[in-house]
Design brief:
Number of strands: 31
Organism: Streptomyces alfalfae
Largest sheet: 8 strands, parallel, barrel
Strand order of the largest sheet: 4-5-6-7-8-9-10-11
Mean pLDDT: 97
Domain Beta-galactosidase 1-like first all-beta: 377-478
CATH topology of the largest domain: TIM Barrel
Structural class: alpha+beta
Family: Belongs to the glycosyl hydrolase 35 family.
InterPro entries: B-gal_1-like, BetaGal1-like_ABD1, BetaGal_gal-bd, Galactose-bd-like_sf, GH, Gly_Hdrlase_35_cat, Glyco_hydro_35_CS, Glycoside_Hdrlase_35
Domain Beta-galactosidase galactose-binding: 508-566
């Protein structure tokens, strides 16, 4: 019997038993010209399958405004050419340490807590999105006329960690089937009773996610599903980093032993991540601390999604690659292929001063949304800003003496100016300005989103100022707001027309310059003296940098660079430097 199916004790492919040895590789976190190299690395690791999420917000930044949904189809074609199978996880929610867990800001800004439920308005948007998205998946299913690589499709994602609306889950499964998905469906959840009971569906394969303790995890799964294949859909072989925290590393031997335990149980596995890649263009999400409730301080994710994976952010094998390859080789039908030749790297280090500069106000005037006055501060969602920043301007009336200035409901970080002079930085944890403000005064708050929450009960919370600005105990009204979306920088001519030429060292604003490259290839960009912002090289957004660490440089994919002069823009939001360097 042709096709992929779920048997009583395991998986079958074209009538033969098969064990899935899969690895997560997200097409949207890897430059397209490097997909084939990374897929060849997965094969050399000993894998026969690749798994990818699909981020809805990346492909539909506004209602009905679809952007390169075809990228998923091109990736699946590359997977087939590489001789791998594919597992697709379309969401609509994906977590993935991705902005808003993949849900569009324009949707969660309207439906709020009704997201990820049976709510008709929410499901209407999901249905429309799925009908478009699945046109890239359905023709590429294994067993179909196209002979594609797709063998399984996920229903939602770790839903038992969030909710218990089985009607919602069943509706998603019906949507997938109605759109033409014929391969097996599955769910994935943590190996805990409330997660498995809340996130699984009768008649749909249930899988579990964990980083260690395979025997105990599968025993818990068997309490809920006495038969069927065992699979760890996310074997957390590494972890991700937060800005201002320590870099997370997992010992290669420890991770390899945990992988071996999974396979000794007779189970299939998906390495999360096999190759993490990069959160380009400011798409990194954020978590909430506070333990199991995930309701504490904001913990924004760094730009690198290296994940301490077997294949690092630059596509290179690590010690974990070799340790995993030794384990996986025991389950291979023959000798494993050798890794592909390394991709080119930068021929020689280069640095340059960024001599041209324009103040943030000039950038906002050229690229920002129209300014309007509001009774109270609007959120990013109300201004239709997904990634970027908002300038809130208001007046402290007078005459009046100096009093504390504070912000309620601040998300996430505000640089405050009083009468044009920098007065301090406010955060959720420190919402009161250190220096009292007297009236009459003009106050500006430049608020940047550090990434929308991607996991937990505060998923979908608004960005910007959700409460109000107070002078002593009095709310200040008549707030003028203007947003600056990061995708406004995608139009290079508009950026070049921003008035510049001033001296910007130590000041926020847009820095511009050029790097002369000999021997284009993979590189790392360093920004000594710069504090926090975003970088573009030849119009490609490398993502956020921040001097708090732990990330100290930004990955530059080789295809982004060119021989000779390369254009660099740095949008600095606090205190700028002078030079940048490629290594």
């Amino acid at each position: 019997m042709d096709g992929f199916r779920v048997g009583a004790d395991g998986f079958e492919l074209d009538g033969r038993p098969v064990r899935l040895l899969s690895g997560a590789l997200h097409y949207f976190r890897v430059h397209e010209e490097q997909w084939r190299h990374r897929l060849a690395m997965l094969r050399a690791l000993g894998l026969n399958c690749v798994e990818t999420y699909v981020p809805w917000n990346l492909h539909e930044p506004g209602p009905g405004d679809y952007r390169d949904v075809e990228a998923l189809g091109r990736f699946l074609d590359a997977v087939r050419e590489a001789g791998l199978w594919a597992i697709v996880r379309p969401g609509p929610y994906i977590c993935a340490e991705w902005e808003n867990g993949g849900l569009p800001h324009w949707l969660t800004g309207v439906v709020g807590a009704r997201a990820r439920t049976r709510d008709e308005e929410y499901l209407g948007h999901v249905g429309r999105w799925f009908r478009r998205l699945l046109r890239e998946v359905v023709p590429r299913q294994h067993g179909g006329p196209g002979g594609g690589p797709v063998i399984m499709v996920q229903v939602e994602n770790e839903y038992g960690s969030y909710g218990s609306d089985r009607v919602y889950l069943a509706h998603l499964a019906d949507l997938l089937r109605a759109a033409g998905v014929r391969v097996p469906l599955f769910t994935s959840d943590g190996p805990e009773d409330h997660m498995l009971s809340g996130g699984s569906l009768p008649g749909v394969l249930a899988t579990v996610n964990f980083g260690s303790g395979a025997r105990a995890a599968f025993a818990k799964l068997r309490e809920h599903r006495p038969s069927g294949p065992l699979m760890c859909m996310e074997f957390w072989c590494g972890w991700f980093d937060h800005w201002g925290a320590e870099h997370v590393v997992r010992d290669a031997g420890d991770a390899a032993a945990a992988l071996a335990e999974i396979l000794e149980c007779g189970a299939s596995v998906n390495l999360y991540m096999a190759h993490g890649g990069t959160n380009f263009a400011g798409w990194a999400g954020a978590n909430r601390g506070g333990g199991a409730l995930h309701d504490g301080a904001l913990e924004p994710d760094v730009t690198s999604y290296d994940y301490d994976a077997p294949i690092d952010e630059h596509g290179r094998p690590t010690a974990k690659f070799e340790a995993f390859r030794d384990v996986l080789a025991r389950y291979a039908p023959g000798p494993l292929p050798e890794p592909p030749a390394p991709l080119p790297v930068l021929g020689a280090p280069v640095s340059a001063a960024l001599a041209d500069w324009a103040p943030l106000d000039a950038v906002l005037d050229r690229l920002g949304t129209p300014e309007a006055e509001h009774a109270v501060p609007p959120t990013f969602e109300e201004l239709d800003v997904d990634r970027g920043l908002v300038r809130y301007a208001l007046t402290v009336p007078g005459p009046r003496g100096p009093c504390p200035l504070s912000v309620r409901g601040l998300r996430d970080r505000a640089v405050v100016y009083v009468d044009g002079e920098r007065a301090g930085v406010l955060t959720e944890d420190e919402p009161v300005l250190g220096v009292p403000v007297a009236g009459h005064a003009r106050v500006e708050l430049w608020v940047e989103s550090l990434g929308r929450v991607n996991y937990g009960p505060r998923l979908g919370e608004p960005k910007g100022i959700e409460g109000g600005v107070l002078h002593e105990r009095q709310y200040l009204h008549g707030v003028r707001a203007r947003g600056l979306r990061l995708d406004a920088f995608d139009v290079a001519p508009a950026v070049r027309e921003i008035p510049g030429g001033g001296q910007g060292r130590g000041r926020p604003g847009l820095y511009r310059g050029a790097l002369s490259v000999r021997g284009a290839g993979d590189a790392a960009l360093e920004l000594p003296g710069f504090t926090r912002g975003f970088v573009w090289v030849n119009g490609f957004n490398l993502g956020r940098y921040w001097s708090v660490g732990p990330q100290r440089s930004l990955y530059v994919p080789g295809p982004v660079l060119r021989e000779g002069e390369n254009e660099v823009w740095v949008l600095e939001l606090e205190e700028g430097g002078e030079r940048v360097a490629l290594r």
